[in-house]
Amino acid sequence: MRKSSPIDPLINKTTQGLLAATVLQPDRWWYLSDLAKHLRRRPSSLQTPLFSLVSAGILSRRKEGNRVYFQANLDCPFLPELQGLMAKTVGLVEVLRETFMPLKDRLEVAFIHGSVAKSSEVAASDIDVIAIGSLGLADLSPVLEKAEERLGRPVNASVYSPQEFAKKIAAKNHFLCAVLDKEKLFVLGEPNDLERIAGRKPR
Q: What architecture is the 13-88 domain classified under in CATH?
């Protein structure tokens, strides 16, 4: 049964998404329609929570002509604490993507699986990652350490070359075949990239 995220009782899903987008990229001014596209929501559904966040001093609002932009309020006294909370909960993918970027040319796909991907984790759950590319765990370890420092949670990674991953899938490796058929949160690459590497037809 799908369980809620540890932060769900505190903050509703729409506000979680707004906070993760804004406070984890504090230098970026978001245009309303860009936020809506990023969160896959209608712009009208974001107006009330955005107004509340601006009124609370968490976000800043700027108007240029007919366009309205929003940004994390850098003067918010608890912005660092809020950034930490978002990074450790709903902002996991954004933090991992940012820390993995230096290796993006050597990584074809990286994704979160397990309890975090299924939203059945507790606050202290490890973050399980599979990375596929032309590198080894030793190459990834410094990146994982940075991610763990920012997230405040262990990050466990399994690393495969594309050829090794495809070979294991062809041999019907129980663990990897189960991972392929369950929920995933993509950090780098897309579902079709993973299906291609696995030798499956894109869904």
A: Orthogonal Bundle (1.10)
